[in-house]
Design brief:
Elements (H helix, E strand, L loop, with lengths): L2 H33 L3 E7 L2 E6 L2 E6 L6 E6 L5 H28 L7 H29 L3 H17 L21 H18 L2 H11 L12 H14 L3 H14 L6 H13 L4 H14 L9 H17 L2
Antiparallel strand pairs: 1-2, 1-4, 2-3
Helix pairs in contact: 1-2, 1-3, 2-3, 4-5, 5-6, 7-8, 7-9, 9-10, 9-11, 10-11
Length: about 325
Amino acid sequence: MSMVAKVFMAAGGAAAGYVIVGLAAALGKLIVGAVLRFRFDEFVFFMIRVGRRGKGLSVGLCDPQPYISCSMLDTKYTKMRNLIYGAFSMAAALFFTETVWFQLYGTKIMPVNALTQAMAVVMAAYTLVLFIRLCINQKKKAGSGAAGIMRREYERCIAALKAGEAPGGMQIQWAPGTGNLSDGTVVKKYLLLCYYHFLDRGEYEGVKKIMDEFEQYVPDKWSHSDLNILCEFVFYHVIIAPNEGKAKYYGKPFLEKLDGREDVNAKRVFAYWLFFVEGDKGAALQIAVEALKMVKSYRLEGCRAMEERLIGALIKKIEQTP
């Protein structure tokens, strides 16, 4: 066999091994999630996404991802349930990996060639990565400090929101000293949930406290994945604590990130921006109506009533303005 053929076989084996372990880990999560009565959230296979939509499922394309993933939501979050969930996923991946290695080198049922060897090596390497990642994540979540609190509270609260609990009705444990933490991604996710909590309750002093913390984690350059956070900075400085300078400072990257695929909250903020900053009633009303139609399919079910209320208030304001 030529060297070129062996290279192509090895590449195919590596890809097959990567897919097998990814699917095995996802299967493990589905099984243990069903046993523990978790709520299915989404399954992503590179660029194909299967997600929950209301009481049913939706299938479609998403931004290409370099992995296979499955996520289940635990509305009764505990450290032990989370550990079992992660460990069973790891066990499923390990079972498939050991089966391939045993058949390849133990019983020699599988032929030893460039394809099977590459597959076995990639499966072992990927399983090791999953194991290390599981250990690191569980160690971080188990901490009694602010970082551990935030990770646990984020997972518990995001599951509750997706299950339909209103953010204003959630009890969120406050993690002191967030400004001293270096893990900005976790802090921002946690603070966004706290922001929704106070915004839904209409407690604007609480909103101000959260936004003061948030500003310590403002990046030098915003990414598209931060759009849901960036839009709330705009909303805060346009509506809750009007500040023209900061509104335009955050508004510039916000407008640049809009591409027509944004969530309801970003649509809502864009409508407010058009009306209060640009003074364009027609465009604001059009975007607000579009956002209102999207509310029923918003992935954060618990935030739907809040978004509908905020969008409805803007539409009423527009209609009453001469």
